[in-house]
TrEMBL record, chain A:
This is histidine kinase. Signal peptide: none annotated. Residues 112-156 form a coiled coil. It comes from the Bacteria.
Length: 392, 268
């Protein structure tokens, strides 16, 4: 009996491990417009449309390799004349004396494919309509609940703002007044004859003067922090961060301090505020330098995509931000405190100057720009402050 | 946290070593893709594998269209896994589109990754002026149509009713546990994000030392495309292997293993 595949009314194809054709039957040759000799040794890609080549490589090949067989696959072949032929195929893989052989049987499905396409289209538009409906309803519910939320938040914020304003008044006026008086009286006392005091009395007086000076500095800082406007600024524009950082770095230039500023992308922000931000950051680097070595501060930047939703869960919109990293080789700190350092009045080292306001203010400035700020540090190695600001 | 992330991404662990190799599968399959390559590293490394949402054994209910509207969402998956499992000094191995996903993750958190190994990467699949990516937009549209056809005639039709195994659910179970299972909606959005994506401007930002493993004949990521990737990433090596096709880790696992091993020992 002659080889049945010669007269079989369906395509038969056998491929080797590298997807090269080693057998193709006359039905397939005629269908595709080739002579058998044209195709033997050729890769299967020769018979596939571009889309089918992608599908073959990304889906079929892995599936066939791992599963050894697959049924009812749909693929589009391409004839020598570049005519597309939709086919349905079954595949199985066999190991024959150490050689991997993949057997394909297929039939063209012109008519079925057309029907199927219409079915798919109808199904899709029905699903789309349903989905749109569902989606709209879901969004509407979400919107309503978020509006209620928003309203409550606005009320809360108003209340908070009033409190803060009052607090600010208390700080700037009510607290200052008794402090001024303490200073005044202490000053009067210091003008007394030295003999009028015992040693103890003199020491106590010095203590009063020191503490009230410190209290004054504290109040000034607190006032600065709480009066810092959190509303968005109307002075937002394109800021050349590279030039800005260079200018700020010059303020801190010293013989044993090196600022390395690499190319920084421009950001969208309030120039004055950003100057303040970098002043705080560089100030910190200088303040917490390592006593035994010269200080090097590297400031570098890149543009990257970040989800701009920071508070709502499961909400995503990726926008481009500029990431600026200020890395020093100062004393560093225990990374456990990497979040605490941005809180007001949080000082890791009680002996350090200031009240630990710089980073809290920095955070305020960055958040006002819809950005983010974070820190990473290693004791003895140095600190990295990372700032994300909207790209210009 | 750990448990939920392990379920969410169907994370599996193998190997006895210390340093972590994290394997990320490409478009069209799941972590089974790595089964011929991974065992070679079990002795010396801790191997972590996962499926993206909507692939393999993960549940599509965690799919979020907004999150996965760009490769950034997938990069976030890798970062979320690293955070939850506290993985550091990671060797990230990505196939196909996961090469670029991996690059984005490395750019986001350069300190977390020690090496990035890209198997068959492309920074842009669509031809654009002088740049040859290999495809036109209409090719991708045809691909999406073909995926439609296969899911109607294949995944759905292989369900219990048509197979007539309604009374023997274990048979249908076996079929649905087939390899490379993907949810159609997920796969189609993944295809769009993958093939319409353009990450050429991200390449120079990558600081992690990286290796490009390039097959000799790959219709999806041809040699020029792989060379382009390697050339535009600082600190990158290029390794051509004589495998053919887009999945050398399936078609030539020994060579692929050798390429990875050689790179890791050379750059150690």
């Amino acid at each position: 009996m002659p080889d049945p595949t010669a007269l079989l009314p369906g395509g038969v194809l056998v491929l080797d491990a590298e997807s090269r054709i080693i057998t193709i039957n006359p039905y397939a040759c005629t269908l595709l417009g080739y002579d058998e000799a044209d195709l033997l040794g050729e890769k299967i890609d020769r018979l596939l449309t571009t889309a089918s080549r992608i599908y073959f490589q990304t889906h079929l090949y892995p599936l066939i390799t791992l599963q050894k067989a697959a049924d009812e696959l749909y693929l589009t072949l391409q004839t020598r004349e570049r005519i597309w032929i939709p086919v349905l195929l079954n595949v199985s893989t066999h190991d024959q004396d150490g050689e991997i052989r993949t057997y394909y049987a297929f039939i063209p499905v012109y008519q079925r494919r057309k029907f199927e396409q219409e079915l798919i289209n109808a199904k899709k538009s029905a699903e789309d309509a349903l989905l749109r409906n569902d989606e709209l309803r879901r969004l509407q519910q979400q919107l309503q609940s978020q509006q209620a939320d928003l309203d409550r938040q606005i009320g809360l914020l108003r209340h908070r703002n009033d409190e803060l304003e009052q607090f600010s008044k208390i700080i700037s006026h009510d607290l200052q007044e008794p402090l001024r008086k303490i200073n005044l009286f202490a000053d009067l006392l210091t003008r007394e004859e030295p003999a009028a005091f015992t040693t103890m009395g003199r020491r106590a007086l010095d203590g009063v003067a020191r503490s009230s000076a410190r209290l004054r500095a504290l109040i000034t800082d607190l006032q600065l922090y709480f009066s810092h406007d959190v509303r968005s600024s109307d002075k937002v524009g394109v800021v050349d961060t590279e030039a800005l950082v260079h200018t700020v770095a010059e303020e801190y230039s010293a013989a044993d301090t090196l600022f390395q500023v690499t190319k920084l992308p421009a950001v969208l922000g309030d120039r004055e505020e950003l100057i303040r931000l970098f002043r705080h950051l560089l100030d910190n680097a200088v303040k917490f330098r390592h006593p035994d070595r010269p200080l090097t501060v590297q400031i570098s930047g890149t543009v990257l995509s970040v989800n701009s939703f920071q508070h709502l869960p499961d909400k995503y919109r990726y926008n481009d931000y500029v990431r600026i990293v200020v890395a020093d080789d100062g004393i560093g700190f225990d990374n456990r405190y990497r979040e605490d350092i941005f809180r007001i009045m949080e000082k890791l080292d009680a002996r350090s100057p200031g009240i630990g306001l710089g980073l809290a203010l920095s955070k305020k400035i960055v958040e006002k720009h819809n950005g983010q700020i974070s820190a990473n540090s290693e004791p003895g190695q140095g600190t990295q402050i990372t700032v994300l600001l909207p790209v210009a | 946290m750990q448990k939920s992330i392990i379920d969410r991404y169907n994370i599996t662990f193998h190997g006895q070593g210390e340093q972590v190799i994290l394997f990320a599968h490409g478009f069209g399959c799941d972590q089974n893709m790595w089964r011929y390559v991974a065992p070679a590293f079990e002795q010396d490394y801790k191997l972590v594998m996962f499926d993206y949402i909507g692939h393999g054994r993960t549940s599509p209910e965690h799919y979020n269209r907004d999150r996965y509207a760009s490769l950034q969402g997938y990069a976030q998956d890798i970062l979320d896994i690293c955070h939850a499992l506290e993985l550091d000094n990671v060797i990230l191995v990505g196939h196909s589109v996961s090469s670029m996903i991996g690059a984005l993750a490395c750019i986001q958190e350069p300190d977390r990754f020690a090496r990035l190994i890209m198997v068959g990467p492309s920074a842009c699949y669509i031809n654009d002026g002088a740049y040859v990516g290999g495809f036109e937009r209409q090719d991708i549209e045809s691909l999406l149509e073909m995926m439609d056809g296969n899911f109607l005639g294949w995944a759905n039709a292989l369900g219990p009713t048509i197979m007539g195994n309604g009374d023997r659910p274990e048979l249908s179970q076996e079929l649905t546990e087939s390899f490379c299972k993907t949810d159609l909606d997920v796969a189609q959005q993944f295809a769009r994000v993958t093939f319409y994506g353009d990450n050429r401007s991200d390449l120079p930002k990558l600081r992690t030392p990286s290796l490009v493993i390039q097959s000799l004949e790959d219709v999806i990521a041809p040699v020029e495309v792989g060379e382009y990737v390697a050339k535009n990433i600082p600190n990158s090596s290029f390794r051509m292997i004589s495998a053919t096709g887009h999945c050398p880790h399936l078609s030539a696992p020994t060579e692929t293993v050798e390429a990875i091993r050689e790179y890791l020992s050379r750059t150690n």
